[in-house]
Automatic annotation (TrEMBL):
<dbReference type="InterPro" id="IPR002524">
    <property type="entry name" value="Cation_efflux"/>
</dbReference>
<dbReference type="InterPro" id="IPR050681">
    <property type="entry name" value="CDF/SLC30A"/>
</dbReference>
<feature type="transmembrane region" description="Helical">
    <location>
        <begin position="114"/>
        <end position="137"/>
    </location>
</feature>
<feature type="transmembrane region" description="Helical">
    <location>
        <begin position="16"/>
        <end position="35"/>
    </location>
</feature>
<dbReference type="GO" id="GO:0005886">
    <property type="term" value="C:plasma membrane"/>
</dbReference>
<dbReference type="InterPro" id="IPR027470">
    <property type="entry name" value="Cation_efflux_CTD"/>
</dbReference>
<keyword id="KW-0406">Ion transport</keyword>
<dbReference type="InterPro" id="IPR027469">
    <property type="entry name" value="Cation_efflux_TMD_sf"/>
</dbReference>
<feature type="domain" description="Cation efflux protein cytoplasmic">
    <location>
        <begin position="211"/>
        <end position="289"/>
    </location>
</feature>
<keyword id="KW-0472">Membrane</keyword>
<feature type="transmembrane region" description="Helical">
    <location>
        <begin position="83"/>
        <end position="102"/>
    </location>
</feature>
<keyword id="KW-1133">Transmembrane helix</keyword>
<dbReference type="InterPro" id="IPR036837">
    <property type="entry name" value="Cation_efflux_CTD_sf"/>
</dbReference>
<feature type="transmembrane region" description="Helical">
    <location>
        <begin position="41"/>
        <end position="62"/>
    </location>
</feature>
<feature type="domain" description="Cation efflux protein transmembrane">
    <location>
        <begin position="18"/>
        <end position="207"/>
    </location>
</feature>
<dbReference type="Pfam" id="PF01545">
    <property type="entry name" value="Cation_efflux"/>
</dbReference>
<dbReference type="GO" id="GO:0005385">
    <property type="term" value="F:zinc ion transmembrane transporter activity"/>
</dbReference>
Length: 300
């Protein structure tokens, strides 16, 4: 039996809209600052911010599509578009990191002049904006993979802005222009772990891995503790999209319990899943002892 679920509230959408407006503002500021100062580090941070903007736009579109009603052909609607959007976002990050590395190598060999004062001023504005963005997205990061992706990228931007600020101070103090490509590579290196973390989570959902926070053995133990349950087999758990875990299982039940009715059994099993493991959508096949005998060993 399955039960309903809700996903993707208006609060998350509002956070994404505000984060998008903020990211667009910072993007323009850093592009202007990078061109005026001649700093690759600022342009690298702007490139990262461009992926934020693209990711946020994709997330908003996917969130809207995910709210479309389900049909007989698409029984979960378009909820998984959110996961695909997050995957595209992660790929953008990898591409930007590669471009930064290539451009940094070119500038290492022939470093151009950099106006450290302008570089410092524009990076400071970017840092302040990133702090505001983190505060906007922090609450929703645990409940949505796209909010989480945007939140992680904001962290990368904040660290990137800090690196640019340190680089600008270093150039002003020493006059060594190669600090700029060095800082740019640091920005790229900070991008990669976050991109991989997001992509790994997306892949886990798409290949229908068991959710990280769910232990199927614990579910089995909980169910087997009930006096009417004989055994549990064919357990499967996966995620439709962030915050929507799904589970199916075959549960062998004592014949005398079945004789008293199927409704209370299913209600008890589903209540256990919802109350202890936060799984609202489940499909449970109840089997009598004689029918299930010799079959439960075939699958875990």
């Amino acid at each position: 039996m399955g039960s309903g679920h809700s996903h993707g509230g208006g609060d998350n959408r509002t956070r994404l809209v505000w984060a998008l407006a903020l990211s667009l503002t910072v993007l323009v500021i850093e592009v202007v600052g990078g061109i005026r100062s001649g700093s690759l580090a600022l342009l690298a941070d702007a490139g990262h911010m461009l992926t934020d903007v693209a990711g946020l736009l994709i997330a908003l579109a996917a969130m809207s599509a995910g709210r479309l009603p389900s049909t007989s052909k698409k029984t979960f609607g378009y909820q998984r578009l959110e996961v695909l959007a997050a995957g595209v976002n992660a790929c953008f990050l990898f591409l930007v990191a590669g471009w930064i590395g290539f451009e940094a190598w070119e500038r290492w060999q022939a470093p151009p002049e950099v106006a450290s004062g302008s570089m410092l001023a524009f990076a400071s504005v970017g840092l302040a904006a990133n702090i505001v963005g983190l505060l906007l997205l922090r609450k929703g990061a645990s409940g949505s993979i796209n909010i989480k992706g945007a939140y992680l990228e904001m962290w990368g931007d904040l660290l990137g802005s800090l690196a640019v600020i340190i680089g600008a101070i270093g150039i002003a103090a020493t006059g060594w222009l190669r600090i700029d490509p060095v800082v740019s590579v640091l920005v790229a290196v900070m991008i990669l772990p976050r991109a991989w973390q997001l992509l790994r989570e997306v892949i886990g959902i798409l290949i229908e891995s068991t959710p990280d926070d769910l232990d199927l053995d614990s579910v089995r133990v909980h169910w087997l503790s009930k006096p009417f349950v004989v055994s549990v087999h064919d357990m499967h758990a996966w995620t439709i999209t962030s915050g929507v875990p799904v589970m199916s299982a075959h549960v062998v039940v004592r014949d005398d319990a079945l004789a008293r009715g199927l409704g209370p059994i299913l209600e008890d099993l589903r209540g256990c899943l919802d109350g202890h493991f936060s799984i609202e959508h489940s499909t449970i096949q109840v089997e009598p002892e004689d029918l299930a005998e010799g079959r439960e060993h075939l699958h875990p």
